[in-house]
Protein backbone atom coordinates (compact mmCIF):
# COMPACT_ATOMS: atom_id res chain seq x y z
CA UNK A 1 0.00 0.00 0.00
CA UNK A 2 2.99 2.28 -0.37
CA UNK A 3 1.38 4.29 -3.16
CA UNK A 4 -1.29 5.43 -0.74
CA UNK A 5 -1.18 7.97 2.06
CA UNK A 6 -0.73 5.86 5.18
CA UNK A 7 -0.62 6.56 8.87
CA UNK A 8 1.19 4.01 11.01
CA UNK A 9 -0.17 3.45 14.51
CA UNK A 10 2.50 2.03 16.79
CA UNK A 11 0.74 -0.17 19.31
CA UNK A 12 1.32 0.34 23.02
CA UNK A 13 -2.22 -0.60 24.07
CA UNK A 14 -4.54 -2.71 21.97
CA UNK A 15 -7.77 -0.89 22.68
CA UNK A 16 -6.34 2.51 21.98
CA UNK A 17 -4.53 1.55 18.78
CA UNK A 18 -7.58 -0.09 17.25
CA UNK A 19 -9.76 2.89 17.99
CA UNK A 20 -7.15 5.18 16.47
CA UNK A 21 -6.77 3.04 13.36
CA UNK A 22 -10.53 2.99 12.83
CA UNK A 23 -11.00 6.71 13.36
CA UNK A 24 -8.19 7.48 10.93
CA UNK A 25 -9.88 5.31 8.32
CA UNK A 26 -13.19 7.00 9.01
CA UNK A 27 -11.39 10.16 7.95
CA UNK A 28 -10.64 8.31 4.66
CA UNK A 29 -6.94 7.85 5.36
CA UNK A 30 -5.44 4.37 5.35
CA UNK A 31 -3.97 3.29 8.70
CA UNK A 32 -1.90 0.33 9.69
CA UNK A 33 -1.18 -0.93 13.20
CA UNK A 34 2.35 -2.15 13.88
CA UNK A 35 3.98 -3.39 17.09
CA UNK A 36 5.33 -0.61 19.31
CA UNK A 37 8.90 -1.83 18.88
CA UNK A 38 8.87 -1.84 15.06
CA UNK A 39 12.40 -0.85 13.98
CA UNK A 40 12.73 2.71 12.62
CA UNK A 41 14.31 1.41 9.38
CA UNK A 42 11.16 -0.57 8.69
CA UNK A 43 9.01 2.47 9.35
CA UNK A 44 11.14 4.54 7.04
CA UNK A 45 10.80 1.95 4.29
CA UNK A 46 7.00 2.10 4.59
CA UNK A 47 7.17 5.88 4.13
CA UNK A 48 4.00 6.70 6.04
CA UNK A 49 2.67 10.25 6.04
CA UNK A 50 2.62 10.19 9.81
CA UNK A 51 3.17 8.00 12.86
CA UNK A 52 0.95 7.85 15.93
CA UNK A 53 2.22 6.31 19.16
CA UNK A 54 -0.91 4.97 20.82
CA UNK A 55 -1.29 5.44 24.54
CA UNK A 56 -0.83 2.38 26.71
CA UNK A 57 -0.20 1.17 30.21
CA UNK A 58 3.59 1.57 30.00
CA UNK A 59 5.62 4.08 31.99
CA UNK A 60 8.95 5.54 30.93
CA UNK A 61 10.12 6.17 34.49
CA UNK A 62 12.54 3.88 36.25
CA UNK A 63 10.13 3.09 39.06
CA UNK A 64 7.73 1.42 36.71
CA UNK A 65 4.67 -0.27 38.09
CA UNK A 66 4.96 -3.98 38.50
CA UNK A 67 2.88 -4.71 35.45
CA UNK A 68 5.01 -2.61 33.13
CA UNK A 69 7.59 -5.34 33.31
CA UNK A 70 5.07 -7.75 31.85
CA UNK A 71 6.10 -6.81 28.35
CA UNK A 72 5.35 -3.17 27.56
CA UNK A 73 7.03 -2.82 24.14
CA UNK A 74 10.07 -0.61 23.85
CA UNK A 75 9.82 2.21 21.37
CA UNK A 76 12.94 3.23 19.47
CA UNK A 77 13.58 6.95 20.09
CA UNK A 78 14.78 7.14 16.49
CA UNK A 79 11.14 7.27 15.35
CA UNK A 80 11.28 10.94 16.30
CA UNK A 81 14.18 11.56 13.93
CA UNK A 82 12.86 10.11 10.68
CA UNK A 83 11.50 13.43 9.44
CA UNK A 84 7.99 11.92 9.58
CA UNK A 85 5.33 13.76 11.64
CA UNK A 86 4.62 12.05 14.97
CA UNK A 87 1.68 12.28 17.35
CA UNK A 88 2.71 10.67 20.61
CA UNK A 89 0.02 9.88 23.17
CA UNK A 90 0.60 9.28 26.90
CA UNK A 91 3.53 6.90 27.23
CA UNK A 92 4.74 8.07 23.81
CA UNK A 93 4.55 11.70 24.90
CA UNK A 94 6.85 10.84 27.80
CA UNK A 95 9.34 9.30 25.39
CA UNK A 96 9.17 12.29 23.08
CA UNK A 97 9.69 14.78 25.87
CA UNK A 98 12.60 12.87 27.35
CA UNK A 99 14.22 12.39 23.95
CA UNK A 100 14.38 16.15 23.38
CA UNK A 101 15.55 17.08 26.87
CA UNK A 102 12.31 17.83 28.73
CA UNK A 103 11.38 16.46 32.15
CA UNK A 104 8.90 13.74 32.95
CA UNK A 105 7.64 13.00 36.43
CA UNK A 106 4.87 11.04 38.15
CA UNK A 107 1.56 12.24 39.52
CA UNK A 108 0.79 11.96 43.20
CA UNK A 109 -1.54 8.98 43.57
CA UNK A 110 0.43 6.80 41.20
CA UNK A 111 3.83 8.14 42.09
CA UNK A 112 4.85 4.95 43.83
CA UNK A 113 3.73 2.83 40.99
CA UNK A 114 0.95 1.14 42.92
CA UNK A 115 -0.73 -1.26 40.56
CA UNK A 116 -3.96 -2.54 42.02
CA UNK A 117 -4.02 -5.43 39.62
CA UNK A 118 -0.87 -7.21 40.70
CA UNK A 119 0.05 -9.96 41.20
CA UNK A 120 -2.45 -11.51 38.80
CA UNK A 121 -2.00 -8.77 36.23
CA UNK A 122 -2.38 -9.70 32.59
CA UNK A 123 -1.27 -6.44 31.09
CA UNK A 124 -3.51 -6.01 28.11
CA UNK A 125 -6.78 -6.70 29.86
CA UNK A 126 -6.62 -5.58 33.43
CA UNK A 127 -3.93 -2.97 33.72
CA UNK A 128 -5.50 -0.13 31.75
CA UNK A 129 -5.71 2.51 34.43
CA UNK A 130 -8.65 4.75 35.20
CA UNK A 131 -8.93 7.68 32.82
CA UNK A 132 -10.32 10.92 34.19
CA UNK A 133 -12.26 13.49 32.22
CA UNK A 134 -10.87 17.02 32.28
CA UNK A 135 -11.58 20.24 30.40
CA UNK A 136 -8.94 21.17 27.85
CA UNK A 137 -7.68 24.77 27.91
CA UNK A 138 -6.16 25.52 24.52
CA UNK A 139 -3.09 27.75 24.50
CA UNK A 140 -2.02 27.34 20.87
CA UNK A 141 -4.66 26.52 18.30
CA UNK A 142 -2.64 25.52 15.28
CA UNK A 143 -2.21 22.92 14.05
CA UNK A 144 -3.94 20.36 16.31
CA UNK A 145 -6.70 22.33 17.98
CA UNK A 146 -8.11 24.41 15.12
CA UNK A 147 -11.89 24.72 15.01
CA UNK A 148 -12.50 22.94 18.27
CA UNK A 149 -15.59 23.72 20.31
CA UNK A 150 -14.92 25.60 23.57
CA UNK A 151 -14.70 23.63 26.81
CA UNK A 152 -13.79 20.31 25.26
CA UNK A 153 -13.72 17.41 27.72
CA UNK A 154 -10.80 15.07 27.18
CA UNK A 155 -10.02 11.66 28.62
CA UNK A 156 -6.66 11.92 30.34
CA UNK A 157 -4.08 9.17 30.10
CA UNK A 158 -4.35 7.47 33.47
CA UNK A 159 -0.83 6.20 33.93
CA UNK A 160 1.67 7.95 36.12
CA UNK A 161 3.82 9.91 33.67
CA UNK A 162 3.33 13.67 33.49
CA UNK A 163 5.42 16.25 31.65
CA UNK A 164 6.96 18.65 34.16
CA UNK A 165 8.94 20.67 31.66
CA UNK A 166 8.57 20.83 27.88
CA UNK A 167 11.78 20.27 25.93
CA UNK A 168 13.59 23.24 24.38
CA UNK A 169 11.96 24.17 21.08
CA UNK A 170 8.60 22.71 22.09
CA UNK A 171 5.53 24.81 22.89
CA UNK A 172 2.91 23.94 25.50
CA UNK A 173 -0.23 23.82 23.36
CA UNK A 174 -2.86 22.92 25.96
CA UNK A 175 -3.39 22.40 29.68
CA UNK A 176 -6.09 21.17 32.03
CA UNK A 177 -6.77 22.17 35.64
CA UNK A 178 -4.73 19.20 36.91
CA UNK A 179 -2.21 18.91 34.09
CA UNK A 180 -0.40 22.13 33.21
CA UNK A 181 1.27 20.46 30.22
CA UNK A 182 -1.43 18.43 28.47
CA UNK A 183 -0.10 18.91 24.92
CA UNK A 184 3.28 19.91 23.50
CA UNK A 185 4.44 20.47 19.96
CA UNK A 186 7.31 21.46 17.74
CA UNK A 187 5.99 22.66 14.38
CA UNK A 188 9.35 22.66 12.66
CA UNK A 189 9.99 19.03 13.46
CA UNK A 190 6.25 18.19 13.20
CA UNK A 191 6.36 16.34 16.53
CA UNK A 192 3.41 16.48 18.94
CA UNK A 193 2.59 14.92 22.29
CA UNK A 194 -0.77 14.58 24.04
CA UNK A 195 -1.44 13.66 27.65
CA UNK A 196 -4.97 12.62 26.74
CA UNK A 197 -6.59 10.14 24.38
CA UNK A 198 -7.95 11.93 21.29
CA UNK A 199 -9.56 8.66 20.12
CA UNK A 200 -11.55 8.51 23.35
CA UNK A 201 -12.47 12.20 23.33
CA UNK A 202 -16.13 12.64 22.41
CA UNK A 203 -17.03 13.74 18.89
CA UNK A 204 -16.65 16.21 17.34
CA UNK A 205 -13.48 17.21 19.24
CA UNK A 206 -11.61 13.86 19.24
CA UNK A 207 -11.99 13.16 15.51
CA UNK A 208 -11.26 16.84 14.79
CA UNK A 209 -7.92 16.67 16.64
CA UNK A 210 -6.92 13.54 14.73
CA UNK A 211 -8.01 15.05 11.44
CA UNK A 212 -6.09 18.23 12.16
CA UNK A 213 -2.99 16.04 12.53
CA UNK A 214 -3.76 14.01 9.37
CA UNK A 215 -4.59 16.89 7.08
CA UNK A 216 -2.25 19.44 8.70
CA UNK A 217 1.28 18.27 9.56
CA UNK A 218 0.90 14.95 7.69
CA UNK A 219 -0.65 16.52 4.61
CA UNK A 220 -2.71 13.39 3.88
CA UNK A 221 -5.27 13.14 1.10
CA UNK A 222 -8.63 11.58 2.01
CA UNK A 223 -8.35 8.78 -0.52
CA UNK A 224 -9.25 5.62 1.46
CA UNK A 225 -12.81 5.13 0.20
CA UNK A 226 -14.81 1.96 -0.49
CA UNK A 227 -14.33 2.53 -4.22
CA UNK A 228 -10.58 2.89 -3.83
CA UNK A 229 -10.11 -0.23 -1.76
CA UNK A 230 -12.30 -2.28 -4.07
CA UNK A 231 -10.16 -1.16 -7.03
CA UNK A 232 -6.95 -1.88 -5.14
CA UNK A 233 -8.13 -5.28 -3.97
CA UNK A 234 -9.08 -6.28 -7.52
CA UNK A 235 -5.72 -5.14 -8.88
CA UNK A 236 -3.94 -6.93 -6.01
CA UNK A 237 -5.74 -10.23 -6.64
CA UNK A 238 -4.99 -10.07 -10.37
CA UNK A 239 -1.35 -9.54 -9.67
CA UNK A 240 -1.05 -12.20 -6.95
CA UNK A 241 -2.98 -14.93 -8.73
CA UNK A 242 -1.81 -14.42 -12.29
CA UNK A 243 -3.09 -17.41 -14.22
CA UNK A 244 -3.53 -19.55 -11.10
CA UNK A 245 -6.74 -21.20 -9.92
CA UNK A 246 -8.51 -20.21 -6.74
CA UNK A 247 -10.86 -22.18 -4.52
CA UNK A 248 -13.22 -20.60 -2.00
CA UNK A 249 -15.19 -22.26 0.80
CA UNK A 250 -18.26 -20.10 0.36
CA UNK A 251 -20.52 -19.67 3.37
CA UNK A 252 -22.76 -16.88 2.14
CA UNK A 253 -21.69 -14.68 5.07
CA UNK A 254 -20.56 -11.15 4.32
CA UNK A 255 -16.82 -11.89 4.56
CA UNK A 256 -16.75 -14.82 2.18
CA UNK A 257 -19.25 -13.09 -0.12
CA UNK A 258 -17.17 -9.92 -0.44
CA UNK A 259 -13.94 -11.88 -0.85
CA UNK A 260 -15.50 -14.06 -3.55
CA UNK A 261 -17.14 -11.22 -5.50
CA UNK A 262 -13.86 -9.27 -5.44
CA UNK A 263 -11.95 -12.32 -6.67
CA UNK A 264 -14.59 -12.95 -9.32
CA UNK A 265 -14.22 -9.38 -10.60
CA UNK A 266 -10.46 -9.86 -10.68
CA UNK A 267 -10.03 -13.32 -12.16
CA UNK A 268 -13.51 -14.47 -13.27
CA UNK A 269 -13.59 -18.16 -14.17
CA UNK A 270 -10.29 -18.91 -12.43
CA UNK A 271 -12.32 -18.81 -9.20
CA UNK A 272 -14.43 -21.75 -8.04
CA UNK A 273 -16.63 -21.42 -4.95
CA UNK A 274 -17.86 -24.44 -3.05
CA UNK A 275 -20.89 -24.10 -0.83
CA UNK A 276 -21.39 -27.08 1.45
CA UNK A 277 -25.03 -27.42 2.50
CA UNK A 278 -24.71 -29.44 5.67
CA UNK A 279 -28.44 -29.45 6.26
CA UNK A 280 -27.97 -27.29 9.34
CA UNK A 281 -28.78 -24.02 7.62
CA UNK A 282 -31.66 -21.66 8.24
CA UNK A 283 -34.84 -21.69 6.17
CA UNK A 284 -34.22 -21.10 2.42
CA UNK A 285 -30.58 -20.24 3.02
CA UNK A 286 -29.00 -22.46 0.38
CA UNK A 287 -31.56 -21.41 -2.25
CA UNK A 288 -30.94 -17.73 -1.47
CA UNK A 289 -27.18 -18.16 -1.79
CA UNK A 290 -27.65 -19.81 -5.16
CA UNK A 291 -30.09 -17.17 -6.35
CA UNK A 292 -27.88 -14.26 -5.38
CA UNK A 293 -24.38 -15.51 -6.12
CA UNK A 294 -24.77 -18.02 -8.93
CA UNK A 295 -27.57 -16.24 -10.79
CA UNK A 296 -27.03 -12.55 -10.06
CA UNK A 297 -23.24 -12.46 -9.68
CA UNK A 298 -22.53 -15.38 -12.02
CA UNK A 299 -20.05 -16.92 -9.60
CA UNK A 300 -18.83 -20.35 -10.49
CA UNK A 301 -20.59 -21.85 -7.47
CA UNK A 302 -20.72 -25.55 -6.72
CA UNK A 303 -23.61 -26.38 -4.36
CA UNK A 304 -22.93 -29.59 -2.48
CA UNK A 305 -25.98 -31.13 -0.83
CA UNK A 306 -24.43 -33.10 2.01
CA UNK A 307 -27.34 -32.88 4.46
CA UNK A 308 -27.87 -36.60 4.74
CA UNK A 309 -24.22 -37.24 5.42
CA UNK A 310 -24.07 -34.70 8.24
CA UNK A 311 -27.32 -35.90 9.78
CA UNK A 312 -26.08 -39.48 9.78
CA UNK A 313 -22.89 -38.39 11.43
CA UNK A 314 -24.84 -36.46 14.08
CA UNK A 315 -27.19 -39.32 14.93
CA UNK A 316 -27.16 -39.97 18.68
CA UNK A 317 -24.72 -37.09 19.34
CA UNK A 318 -25.85 -34.80 22.19
CA UNK A 319 -22.63 -33.30 23.53
CA UNK A 320 -22.07 -29.78 22.10
CA UNK A 321 -18.34 -30.16 21.56
CA UNK A 322 -18.85 -33.55 19.97
CA UNK A 323 -21.37 -31.95 17.60
CA UNK A 324 -18.83 -29.26 16.69
CA UNK A 325 -16.15 -31.85 16.08
CA UNK A 326 -18.45 -34.01 13.97
CA UNK A 327 -19.61 -31.10 11.80
CA UNK A 328 -16.06 -29.70 11.48
CA UNK A 329 -14.52 -33.01 10.44
CA UNK A 330 -17.28 -33.84 8.01
CA UNK A 331 -17.02 -30.38 6.49
CA UNK A 332 -13.32 -30.78 5.82
CA UNK A 333 -13.94 -34.19 4.29
CA UNK A 334 -16.67 -32.94 1.92
CA UNK A 335 -14.64 -29.89 0.97
CA UNK A 336 -11.58 -31.99 0.35
CA UNK A 337 -13.52 -34.35 -1.93
CA UNK A 338 -14.79 -31.40 -3.98
CA UNK A 339 -11.31 -29.85 -4.14
CA UNK A 340 -9.81 -33.09 -5.46
CA UNK A 341 -12.43 -33.26 -8.21
CA UNK A 342 -11.27 -29.86 -9.45
CA UNK A 343 -7.66 -30.86 -10.11
CA UNK A 344 -4.79 -28.52 -9.40
CA UNK A 345 -5.71 -25.50 -7.29
CA UNK A 346 -3.14 -22.84 -6.44
CA UNK A 347 -4.87 -20.62 -3.91
CA UNK A 348 -7.43 -20.91 -1.16
CA UNK A 349 -9.48 -17.71 -0.82
CA UNK A 350 -10.20 -16.68 2.75
CA UNK A 351 -12.16 -13.82 4.28
CA UNK A 352 -9.59 -13.08 6.99
CA UNK A 353 -10.14 -9.59 8.43
CA UNK A 354 -7.76 -7.03 9.91
CA UNK A 355 -8.59 -7.71 13.60
CA UNK A 356 -7.43 -11.34 13.07
CA UNK A 357 -4.28 -10.11 11.38
CA UNK A 358 -3.53 -7.69 14.22
CA UNK A 359 -4.19 -10.41 16.78
CA UNK A 360 -1.82 -12.83 15.08
CA UNK A 361 0.80 -10.13 14.69
CA UNK A 362 0.62 -9.16 18.35
CA UNK A 363 0.72 -12.78 19.54
CA UNK A 364 3.55 -13.65 17.25
CA UNK A 365 5.50 -10.41 17.28
CA UNK A 366 6.49 -10.80 13.63
CA UNK A 367 4.37 -12.92 11.37
CA UNK A 368 0.92 -11.72 10.51
CA UNK A 369 0.01 -15.07 8.98
CA UNK A 370 -0.10 -17.37 11.97
CA UNK A 371 -3.80 -17.48 12.62
CA UNK A 372 -4.93 -17.79 9.04
CA UNK A 373 -2.65 -20.76 8.53
CA UNK A 374 -4.28 -22.39 11.49
CA UNK A 375 -7.63 -21.92 9.79
CA UNK A 376 -6.71 -24.33 7.04
CA UNK A 377 -4.89 -26.66 9.38
CA UNK A 378 -7.60 -29.29 8.93
CA UNK A 379 -6.90 -29.83 5.25
CA UNK A 380 -4.62 -32.70 4.25
CA UNK A 381 -1.00 -31.96 3.47
CA UNK A 382 -1.20 -33.03 -0.18
CA UNK A 383 -3.74 -30.29 -0.86
CA UNK A 384 -1.23 -27.50 -1.00
CA UNK A 385 -2.70 -24.06 -1.38
CA UNK A 386 -1.31 -20.63 -0.94
CA UNK A 387 -3.66 -18.33 0.94
CA UNK A 388 -5.38 -15.45 -0.79
CA UNK A 389 -6.77 -12.98 1.74
CA UNK A 390 -8.04 -9.84 -0.01
CA UNK A 391 -9.79 -8.51 3.11
CA UNK A 392 -6.84 -8.78 5.44
CA UNK A 393 -6.47 -5.02 5.77
CA UNK A 394 -10.16 -4.30 6.35
CA UNK A 395 -12.25 -3.83 9.44
CA UNK A 396 -15.74 -5.32 9.41
CA UNK A 397 -17.49 -2.05 8.60
CA UNK A 398 -15.14 -1.56 5.65
CA UNK A 399 -16.01 -5.05 4.41
CA UNK A 400 -19.66 -4.05 4.51
CA UNK A 401 -18.88 -0.82 2.66
CA UNK A 402 -16.97 -2.82 0.04
CA UNK A 403 -19.92 -5.20 -0.23
CA UNK A 404 -22.28 -2.31 -0.91
CA UNK A 405 -19.85 -0.88 -3.46
CA UNK A 406 -19.84 -4.25 -5.23
CA UNK A 407 -23.64 -4.31 -5.35
CA UNK A 408 -24.06 -7.17 -2.88
CA UNK A 409 -27.63 -7.05 -1.49
CA UNK A 410 -28.20 -5.46 1.92
CA UNK A 411 -29.45 -8.71 3.46
CA UNK A 412 -26.03 -10.27 2.80
CA UNK A 413 -24.04 -7.17 3.72
CA UNK A 414 -25.84 -7.02 7.07
CA UNK A 415 -26.14 -10.75 7.64
CA UNK A 416 -25.65 -11.61 11.28
CA UNK A 417 -22.86 -14.05 12.21
CA UNK A 418 -23.90 -17.67 11.95
CA UNK A 419 -21.89 -20.44 13.63
CA UNK A 420 -20.11 -22.99 11.44
CA UNK A 421 -21.96 -25.95 13.04
CA UNK A 422 -25.19 -24.08 12.26
CA UNK A 423 -28.46 -25.19 13.78
CA UNK A 424 -26.78 -28.29 15.24
CA UNK A 425 -25.77 -26.16 18.24
CA UNK A 426 -29.22 -24.57 18.44
CA UNK A 427 -31.12 -27.83 18.66
CA UNK A 428 -30.38 -28.84 22.24
CA UNK A 429 -29.84 -32.58 22.49
CA UNK A 430 -30.04 -34.85 19.49
CA UNK A 431 -30.31 -33.29 16.04
CA UNK A 432 -33.06 -34.94 13.99
CA UNK A 433 -34.68 -33.81 10.73
CA UNK A 434 -37.99 -33.22 12.56
CA UNK A 435 -36.47 -31.09 15.28
CA UNK A 436 -34.43 -29.14 12.70
CA UNK A 437 -37.59 -28.45 10.71
CA UNK A 438 -39.35 -27.16 13.82
CA UNK A 439 -36.47 -24.85 14.69
CA UNK A 440 -36.19 -23.60 11.11
CA UNK A 441 -39.84 -22.52 11.03
CA UNK A 442 -39.65 -20.78 14.38
CA UNK A 443 -36.32 -19.13 13.53
CA UNK A 444 -37.73 -17.80 10.29
CA UNK A 445 -40.58 -16.11 12.17
CA UNK A 446 -38.07 -14.56 14.57
CA UNK A 447 -36.05 -13.24 11.63
CA UNK A 448 -39.09 -11.77 9.88
CA UNK A 449 -40.46 -10.03 12.96
CA UNK A 450 -37.09 -8.64 14.05
CA UNK A 451 -36.56 -7.25 10.54
CA UNK A 452 -40.09 -5.84 10.31
CA UNK A 453 -39.60 -4.02 13.60
CA UNK A 454 -36.35 -2.49 12.32
CA UNK A 455 -34.17 -4.27 14.87
CA UNK A 456 -31.93 -6.47 12.68
CA UNK A 457 -29.03 -4.02 12.39
CA UNK A 458 -29.19 -3.00 16.03
CA UNK A 459 -28.51 -6.57 17.09
CA UNK A 460 -25.35 -8.62 16.91
CA UNK A 461 -27.45 -11.75 16.60
CA UNK A 462 -31.07 -12.81 17.03
CA UNK A 463 -32.21 -16.39 16.71
CA UNK A 464 -34.22 -19.22 18.18
CA UNK A 465 -33.08 -22.25 20.15
CA UNK A 466 -35.08 -25.43 20.44
CA UNK A 467 -34.72 -26.79 23.95
CA UNK A 468 -35.07 -30.41 24.94
CA UNK A 469 -37.81 -29.43 27.40
CA UNK A 470 -41.54 -29.84 27.00
CA UNK A 471 -44.27 -27.94 28.77
CA UNK A 472 -48.02 -28.24 29.19
CA UNK A 473 -50.26 -25.75 27.39
CA UNK A 474 -53.77 -25.23 26.00
CA UNK A 475 -54.56 -24.68 22.33
CA UNK A 476 -58.17 -24.45 21.11
CA UNK A 477 -59.40 -25.97 24.36
CA UNK A 478 -57.05 -28.92 23.95
CA UNK A 479 -54.25 -29.80 26.35
CA UNK A 480 -50.84 -29.78 24.65
CA UNK A 481 -47.47 -31.09 25.78
CA UNK A 482 -44.90 -29.64 23.42
CA UNK A 483 -41.43 -28.14 23.05
CA UNK A 484 -40.16 -24.95 24.65
CA UNK A 485 -38.46 -22.46 22.32
CA UNK A 486 -35.94 -19.89 23.49
CA UNK A 487 -35.61 -16.52 21.84
CA UNK A 488 -32.08 -15.05 22.02
CA UNK A 489 -31.27 -11.50 20.90
CA UNK A 490 -28.01 -9.83 21.87
CA UNK A 491 -26.13 -6.62 21.30
CA UNK A 492 -22.35 -6.78 21.07
CA UNK A 493 -19.30 -5.13 19.50
CA UNK A 494 -17.20 -8.22 18.91
CA UNK A 495 -18.93 -11.24 20.52
CA UNK A 496 -16.35 -11.26 23.33
CA UNK A 497 -18.97 -9.72 25.56
CA UNK A 498 -22.66 -9.28 24.86
CA UNK A 499 -25.82 -8.03 26.49
CA UNK A 500 -29.34 -9.27 26.02
CA UNK A 501 -31.31 -6.86 23.87
CA UNK A 502 -34.08 -4.83 25.45
CA UNK A 503 -36.58 -5.71 22.72
CA UNK A 504 -39.96 -3.99 22.99
CA UNK A 505 -42.64 -6.10 24.74
CA UNK A 506 -44.88 -5.73 21.68
CA UNK A 507 -42.23 -7.33 19.47
CA UNK A 508 -41.69 -10.19 21.94
CA UNK A 509 -45.42 -10.64 22.06
CA UNK A 510 -45.78 -10.82 18.25
CA UNK A 511 -42.98 -13.38 17.97
CA UNK A 512 -44.40 -15.53 20.74
CA UNK A 513 -47.94 -15.51 19.32
CA UNK A 514 -46.83 -16.24 15.76
CA UNK A 515 -44.57 -19.10 16.81
CA UNK A 516 -47.12 -20.75 19.09
CA UNK A 517 -49.97 -20.49 16.63
CA UNK A 518 -47.88 -21.11 13.51
CA UNK A 519 -45.45 -23.87 14.47
CA UNK A 520 -47.17 -27.03 15.64
CA UNK A 521 -44.94 -28.73 18.19
CA UNK A 522 -43.95 -25.57 20.06
CA UNK A 523 -46.32 -24.31 22.74
CA UNK A 524 -44.13 -22.00 24.81
CA UNK A 525 -41.62 -19.22 24.02
CA UNK A 526 -39.22 -17.83 26.61
CA UNK A 527 -36.77 -14.91 26.30
CA UNK A 528 -33.16 -15.36 27.37
CA UNK A 529 -32.01 -12.45 29.59
CA UNK A 530 -28.46 -13.64 30.19
CA UNK A 531 -25.49 -11.40 29.39
CA UNK A 532 -22.08 -12.67 28.26
CA UNK A 533 -20.31 -13.21 30.55
CA UNK A 534 -21.44 -15.13 32.50
CA UNK A 535 -23.44 -16.74 29.68
CA UNK A 536 -22.37 -17.36 26.10
CA UNK A 537 -24.28 -16.20 23.05
CA UNK A 538 -25.05 -19.68 21.79
CA UNK A 539 -26.60 -22.21 24.14
CA UNK A 540 -24.28 -25.00 23.17
P1 LIG B 1 -20.43 -17.80 22.11
O1 LIG B 1 -21.54 -18.76 22.13
O2 LIG B 1 -19.10 -18.44 22.38
O3 LIG B 1 -20.36 -17.25 20.62
O4 LIG B 1 -20.66 -16.61 23.00
C1 LIG B 1 -19.58 -16.16 20.19
C2 LIG B 1 -19.79 -15.98 18.71
O5 LIG B 1 -19.25 -17.10 18.00
C3 LIG B 1 -20.25 -17.79 17.28
N1 LIG B 1 -19.99 -19.22 17.45
C4 LIG B 1 -19.39 -19.99 16.53
N2 LIG B 1 -18.96 -19.70 15.29
N3 LIG B 1 -18.27 -21.95 15.02
C5 LIG B 1 -18.41 -20.69 14.53
O6 LIG B 1 -18.03 -20.46 13.39
C6 LIG B 1 -18.68 -22.31 16.26
O7 LIG B 1 -18.54 -23.46 16.67
C7 LIG B 1 -19.27 -21.27 17.05
N4 LIG B 1 -19.79 -21.24 18.30
C8 LIG B 1 -20.21 -19.98 18.52
C9 LIG B 1 -21.57 -17.34 17.89
O8 LIG B 1 -22.65 -17.43 16.98
C10 LIG B 1 -21.26 -15.93 18.31
O9 LIG B 1 -21.38 -15.01 17.25
Concise description?
The chain is 34% helix and 21% strand.
Radius of gyration of CA atoms, rounded to a whole number: 27 Å
Structural class by secondary-structure content: alpha/beta
* CATH topology (level 3) name of the largest domain: Rossmann fold
Question: What fraction, in percent, of the residue positions are helical?
Answer: 25-40%
What separation lies between the terminal Cα atoms? Answer: 42 Å
| Mass-distribution shape | globular
Regarding CATH, which class of the largest domain? Alpha Beta
Count of helices?
16
Overall pLDDT confidence: 90
Number of strands: 22
Ligands (ions, cofactors included): xanthosine-5'-monophosphate
Assess the beta-strand content as a share of residues: 15-25%
Spatial order of the strands in the main sheet?
Answer: 2-1-3-4-12-11-10-7
- CATH architecture classification name of the largest domain: 3-Layer(aba) Sandwich
| Largest β-sheet summary | 8 strands, mixed
Low-confidence stretches: 62-71, 108-128, 366-375
Annotated CATH homologous superfamily of the largest domain: Class I glutamine amidotransferase (GATase) domain
Number of domains: 3
Q: What descriptors fit this protein?
A:
540 residues, alpha/beta, Rossmann fold, GMP Synthetase, Chain A, domain 3, 16 helices, 22 strands, binds xanthosine-5'-monophosphate
